[in-house]
Amino acid sequence: MTSTTQAASPLMPTYPPAPVTFVRGEGSYLWDDQGRRYLDLLSGLAVTSLGHAHPAVAEALATQARTLLHVSNLFGTTIGPEVATTLDRLIGDGVPLGGQVFFCNSGAEANECAIKLARRFGGARLDRRAGPERPGTGGAKSGEYVRGRHVVVSAYGSFHGRTLATLHATGQPAKHEVFQPLPEGFRHVTWQDLDDLERALDPSVAAVLLEPVQGEGGVNPADAAYFQGVRRLCDERGLLFMVDEVQTGLGRTGRWFGFQHLGVVPDVVTMAKALGNGVPIGACWARSEVAGVFEPGDHATTYGGQPLATAAARAVLATMESEDAPGRAAAAGARLTQSLSALPEVVSVRGQGLLLGVELAGLDASAVSAALLAAGVVGNAVTPTALRLAPSLLITDAQIDEAVAAIGDVLAAGVSAGPS
Ligand SMILES: Cc1ncc(COP(=O)(O)O)c(C=O)c1O
User: Fold this and answer.
1) Residue 60: in which H helix or E strand, if any?
2) What does DSSP say about strands 282-286 and 22-26: parallel, antiparallel, or unpaired?
3) Distance (Å, rounded) from C-alpha 27 to C-alpha 331?
4) Across the chain, how many H-helices and E-strands are there?
5) How far apart are CA 391 and CA 383, in angstroms?
6) For residues 336, 339, 341 and 344, what is the CA-based torsion angle, rounded to 10 degrees?
């Protein structure tokens, strides 16, 4: 193993020093710079859902790199609309919904798009009747800025990204502290408490933004009754129900999208991570009546929907469909859950499909995660007492058994006492 001291690193110290440097991957395995092999049960935090170096994705990237890497969004491309059409069908669980997609580069950006959409949907606009163009302002008109419904309500324990707006949407006040002032227009409510949500819905609210399983918050799945209650409240009050599927989307939970377990159809769905299997791409989908509130110029990003990233996404989605990735995640998740639950040091296993939180009996999850890495298994501590596992959706039964045996050995060795 190698490590880099922060003082010597050319990288900003936003992450803890890396315990291992990976140089190669194939399927569910990674290799470090010393040639040591690891079983990857984290997938780059739910990104490489088809495993590392998937041949279909690699081939699509190589072909596209030789054909056309990038054009500006001032011009058309063929692949973006094709991927958007597939996503619309998968969001409809096989039935096209006629929604529209904005492509971007990350999960935070997908949520930024959703937040801007909510503000426009809520009626934010400049009343241009009030004045002529102002000289020297690049075409800005004087006029009256009309603030519509604009507040986005999200849940405590949520995670929606690290840009200033998505950081404020993230319901973890400790992460906000050193970045004040944050953009206004965000409010947090207790997770899974419909009464608390209802109390928060004053006339300034435009949208509710929730994850179907809180990933970074500890792998906490939502109840169907909660999501259905949120849908009802949003319908009654004309609010957008926006679902953040950045971690859960595209098969990981055993359905194409996590909300499909919960008996609702959202107005806006955001995703990223698995969409490119490691190539940076995010997407924000909205029902067409919602997407239609955007006008040309309202939102943009240079790389959004460019040919290389969308070629990767097209190959990912085609492979996921041909492999029945959601079905495989459901079956593999059941096997992994059952085997892990039988370990004496495991209190419970929560989550859905292959997004699992493994609650440990009296053990420090960070120490367990470090011991697992030393034993050649990659996972992470999602809370002080729980491990998060998010392996490739194509993980084999033999690899699951290998993972459970390794985890069992590490837990039996009893790395340390529980967190104080
Ligand atoms: C639910 C959720 N939303 C948003 C994000 C932010 O995505 P990104 O890191 O790609 O900006 C994450 C990242 O972990 C996430 O889990």
Assistant:
1) helix 55-67
2) unpaired
3) 18
4) 13, 19
5) 18
6) -140
The answer, yes or no, to whether any atom of ligand 1 lies below 6 A from the CB of 285, is no
272 lines ligand 1 (CB under 6 A): yes
What's the 247 CA to ligand 1 centre distance in angstroms? 6
Expressed in angstroms and rounded, the spacing between residue 376 Cα and the centre of ligand 1 is 26
What is the per-residue DSSP string for 120-151?
HHTT-EEEGGG--BPTTSTTPBP-EEEP-S-E
One-letter amino acid of 53: A
- Cβ of 247 less than 6 Å from ligand 1: yes
Mention every residue, 6+ apart, whose C-beta is less than 8 A from residue 274.
46, 47, 48, 49, 249, 250, 251, 252, 316
Q: Of all atoms in ligand 1, which is nearest to the CA of residue 106?
A: 10
Residues 6+ apart with CB under 8 A from 56: 50, 315, 318, 319
Measure the CA angle with vertex 258, ends 253 and 261; round to 5°. Answer: 95
Alpha helical stretches, state H, 170-304: 173-176, 194-200, 224-237, 288-291
Distance 128 CA to ligand 1 centre (A): 37
- Name the residue with tokens 């837990």: 411
Average pLDDT over the chain reads 95
CA 30 – ligand 1 centroid, Å: 23
Q: CA 187, 193, 198, 199 torsion: positive or negative?
A: negative
Catalytic site includes residue 193: no
Copy the structure tokens of residue 393.
Answer: 């959706």
Ligand 1 pocket member 44 (CB < 6 A): no
- Cα-based distances in Å from 367 to 361, 371, 412: 13, 6, 13
pLDDT greater at residue 227 or residue 9: 227
For residue range 377-396, list pLDDT tens digits in order.
Answer: 999 999 999 999 999 999 99
217 pLDDT more than 70: yes
Determine whether 159 is an active site residue: yes
Angle formed by the axes of helices 325-341 and 307-323, nearest 10°: 70
